[in-house]
Design brief:
Elements lengths: L3 E6 L1 H17 L3 E6 L15 H7 L4 H6 L3 H21 L5 E6 L1 H12 L7 E5 L7 H6 L5 E4 L9 H17 L5 H4 L5 E6 L4 H13 L3 E6 L4 H10 L5 E4 L4 H7 L12 H5 L3 E3 L6 E2 L8 H4 L3 E3 L5 E4 L2 H15 L6 E6 L16 H14 L5 E5 L6 H14 L3
Parallel strand pairs: 1-2, 1-3, 3-4, 4-5, 6-7, 6-8, 8-9, 9-13, 13-14
Antiparallel strand pairs: 10-12, 11-12
Helix pairs in contact: 1-7, 2-4, 4-5, 9-16, 11-14, 14-15
Length: 406
């Protein structure tokens, strides 16, 4: 047989459909392994390759405890935890090369929780009848590289329409697992992660081209709260040898509850693993609280409309000081070299003379607080330029050349 694919499903409610998916994957020349995450006994339960009982035990309980429990949330957590442990074990042993799930709301939540626990680059496909429900797709995907396949029809019975859906899903995951593993494609020792946003796109493009000309492989992440969270996770997986963090605004956004909130661990992964990092400040002097949460004080602030959907508010001096303290606390723990490069004439294309939030003098509140708190061996360099000016990109590249592997 060909490469192996883990199927995650609740056989008590989706047994017939999961078994058909297993059959169609096998027909494509791949070896399916069907894992049952049911919380009740079903007539098809005995046909799983990995039973719900095994999953429950891996999660720290017996299946009898799970099936008799009236606490659905706790039972779901146990089964998900067990499925994660089993899937990770199969992956470590080289027994699976991709994952596919099939289900409704509960099955999709559980299966995608398992998928997000597996590393970037492993093919992941979720066939879900609830993929298009408001708010659910972002919950399913999170920071994972998960492909959502909206079945449209309910996953119930094997009518011709659902058979077609499952056939296409089987062909899709089998094609996905034929892609060479990520580590084969990586340029060893030369892989760089870089954050970017639309307001610093010119700078990011110049830096990327400069690094690529130097033999580096650059992977970009949109620093809007999800992409930069994913970057932190992938750094911890050991996928990168250096970081150019042009847009770490997720740090201040976490402090104020903004839309670009990248979580409490933002700006920490590179320091933890000890890889070099070059840091700048795109977006750090603006916040984006949800408009439904705007206070009267928010409404009185200077603001800049990026488009009809997104508005940036000028960060207050105290928010800038708090952000600088958070930056310093995180960067001071770094085990690898750190260089901070800050433009003095605007931290993005938004920061231009004439724009309402442009205030380079107030930006110095952040710079001075950060300089005062950073440990002495962390270089903080300022550049008389706007972030989008060519000379600033050149300064970033010079910092990269000093600290990145030669």
């Amino acid at each position: 047989m060909g490469r192996s694919i883990l199927i995650i499903a609740t056989l008590d409610t989706k047994g017939e459909e999961a078994l058909f998916l297993r059959e169609r994957i096998r027909a494509q020349g791949c070896e399916p392994i069907l894992l049952d995450i049911s919380m009740r006994e079903g007539e098809r339960s005995g046909e799983a390759d990995i039973s719900a009982g095994e999953v429950a035990r891996a999660g720290g309980a017996s299946f009898q405890e799970i099936s008799s429990s009236t606490d659905r949330a706790s039972a779901t957590a146990v089964m998900t935890r067990g499925a994660v442990e089993i899937a990770k074990g199969l992956l470590r042993e080289g027994k699976i090369h991709g994952v596919v799930g099939i289900g409704g709301s509960t099955g999709s939540l559980m299966a995608t929780d398992v998928m997000r626990a597996l590393p970037f680059g492993l093919p992941k496909l979720m066939v879900s009848s609830t993929a298009a429900l408001p708010g659910m797709s972002t919950r399913y995907i999170g920071t994972g590289d998960i492909c959502l396949f909206h079945s449209v029809v309910e996953i119930s019975g094997l009518g011709e329409v659902l058979r077609n859906v499952i056939e296409r899903a089987a062909r899709a995951i089998c094609a996905m697992v034929e892609t060479p593993p990520l580590e084969v494609q990586r340029v060893e020792g030369r892989a760089v992660a870089m954050t970017m946003l639309g307001p610093c796109e010119k700078c990011a493009s110049r830096v990327r081209r400069g690094l690529e000309e130097g033999g580096f492989q650059v992977t970009g992440f949109s620093a809007a709260g999800i992409g930069d969270r994913a970057m932190e996770e992938m750094i911890l997986q050991g996928l990168f040898d250096g970081v150019v963090d042009l847009a770490p605004g997720g740090v201040i956004e976490h402090l104020v509850g903004g839309m670009r909130d990248a979580g409490p661990r933002r700006l920490e992964a590179a320091g933890k693993v000890g890889i070099p990092q070059v840091i700048s400040t795109c977006g750090v002097n603006h916040i984006t609280p949800p408009k439904r949460a705007w206070t009267e004080e928010h409404r009185s602030r200077r603001k800049y409309d990026l488009d009809r959907h997104r508005t940036w508010l000028r960060a207050s001096p105290e928010e800038l000081r708090e952000a600088a303290r958070a930056f310093a606390e995180k960067l001071n723990k770094a085990r690898g070299p750190v260089v901070v490069v800050i433009p003095l004439k605007g931290w993005s294309s938004v920061d231009q003379p004439g724009n309402p939030t442009y205030d380079p003098e107030e930006d110095m509140v952040f710079v001075e607080e950060l300089r005062r708190r950073l440990r002495p061996n962390i270089e903080l360099r300022t550049v008389e330029a706007n972030m989008e000016d060519p000379e600033f990109a050149q300064a970033v590249l010079e910092a990269c050349r000093r600290v990145f592997p030669s």
